[in-house]
Amino acid sequence: MNTRSPRAPRSRRTLRLLVGGVLVLAVLGIALTLVFRAMLDPGEPVDGVTEVAVRDNEFGPAAVEIPAGTTLAWRWEGEEEHNVIGEGFESPNQVTGEFAHTFADPGTYAYRCTLHYFMRGEVVVSDGDSALRE
């Protein structure tokens, strides 16, 4: 008499498929997290830059370090509409032109383009000229 159920091989196969699917989803989730984290990180600030290019889907450089009292200009160089929005400053949506803001107080100011989620940048404002001393 055969006591093996005809469903047993199918159950094992289903279990293997489920475990495999969960593993694939976990690896995919980790990979996407790392990619998105890298895309949102503006990187190390570049000292002394007073102009940032607004290109199609990126700021260049995305992170700058300037002394307090410096005016930073964003210049549109791409073909898409963008804006620059940060704490205490906001440009209009535009395709060409320039926008400038003077950073009077030391601190770190994050900014972004609200039209393109991954376009983010950072301005590090130092006290006096300490950003240029190295």
Number of domains: 2
Strand content: 25-35%
Classification by helices and strands: alpha/beta
CATH superfamily membership of the largest domain, which one? Cupredoxins -  blue copper proteins
Spans of at least 5 consecutive residues whose pLDDT stays below 50 are 130-134
The arrangement of helices and strands along the chain is HEEEEEEEEEE
The CATH architecture name of the largest domain reads Sandwich
Arrangement of strands in the largest sheet: 1-4-10-9-6-7
Q: Which fold name fills CATH's third level, the topology of the largest domain? A: Immunoglobulin-like
Shape label: elongated
The termini sit apart by 85 Å
What's the average pLDDT? 82
**Helical content class:** 10-25%
Number of strands: 10
In the CATH scheme, the class of the largest domain would be: Mainly Beta
Largest sheet: 6 strands, mixed
Rg is 25 Å
Helix tally? 1
What does this entry look like structurally?
This protein has about 130 residues and is α/β, with parallel strands linked by helices. It has 2 domains: about 1-40; about 45-130, Cupredoxins -  blue copper proteins (Immunoglobulin-like, Sandwich). The protein has 1 helix and 10 strands, in the order H-E-E-E-E-E-E-E-E-E-E. The chain has one helix spanning about 10-40; strands at about 45, 50-55, 60, 65, 70-75, 85, 90, 95-105, 105-110, 120-125. Strands 1-4-10-9-6-7 form a 6-stranded mixed β-sheet, with no helix packed on it. The chain has a 4-stranded mixed β-sheet with strand order 3-2-5-8, with no helix packed on it. The radius of gyration is 25 Å and the shape is elongated.
